[in-house]
Amino acid sequence: MRMVTPKPKTIDRSRKQRNGLPVRHDSVLGNYLVKDKRRIWDYISANPDIESILQAAPIHIRAVFGADVRLTLESVVDPEGASENAELWIMVGCRDDVDVDQALRRLRSLDNEWTAQLPWPLRGKVNVDVEFV
């Protein structure tokens, strides 16, 4: 009689969850105030190539806008469009005392120095805009 040793079980770490989200997504989202975490997770799951953008974005954004800006991540669907056409937005929270023109100049600067330099397939998968808080 031949003995067969069972294969050890492997753990799929990408499925491990914390707060209902895979750990790898949760660590990326930790840099942001997140609106509707489930929709954001769905977007990242459908576009895993953006994780590196989401990890790098706070460094680039804070270099232009300052270390104290609040970053909010939200998924937006055009009310007249299909739900599969969701867009991901990083909203840079500027204080009320920041001049609107100055904030827009900084946004253009960020676009020229960072987002326009992203690989072509990744452009447009993550958008950045300012909001006043």
Proportion of β residues?
15-25%
Poorly predicted runs: 5-23
Q: What is the number of helical segments per DSSP (H or I, 4+ residues)?
A: 4
Shape: globular
Biggest sheet, in brief? 4 strands, mixed
- Mean pLDDT comes to 82
User: Care to count the β-strands?
Assistant: 6
Instruction: Kindly report how far apart the N and C termini lie.
Output: 74 Å
Please state the CA-atom Rg, rounded to the nearest Å: 19 Å
Order of helices and strands: EEHEHHEEHE
Share of helical residues: 25-40%
| Helix-strand makeup class | alpha/beta
- Walk across the major sheet and give the strand order: 3-4-5-6
Assembly level = single chain
Which short descriptors sum up this protein?
four-stranded mixed sheet, alpha/beta, 22% strand, 6 strands, two-stranded antiparallel ribbon, 4 helices, 35% helix, 133 residues
Please outline the helices and strands.
Blueprint: E1 17-18, E2 21-22, H1 23-29, E3 33-35, H2 37-46, H3 51-65, E4 70-76, E5 87-94, H4 100-113, E6 126-132
Parallel strand pairs: 3-4, 5-6
Antiparallel strand pairs: 1-2, 4-5
Helix pairs in contact: 3-4
Q: What is this entry, summarized?
A:
The chain has 133 residues and is α/β, with parallel strands linked by helices.
Structure notes:
This protein is α/β, with parallel strands linked by helices and 133 residues long. It contains 4 helices and 6 strands. The strands form 2 sheets. The protein has a 4-stranded mixed beta sheet. It has a two-stranded antiparallel ribbon with strand order 1-2. Strand 1 and strand 2 (21-22) form a beta hairpin. Helix 3 (51-65) crosses helix 4. It is globular, with a radius of gyration of 19 Å. Residues 5-23 have low confidence and may be disordered.
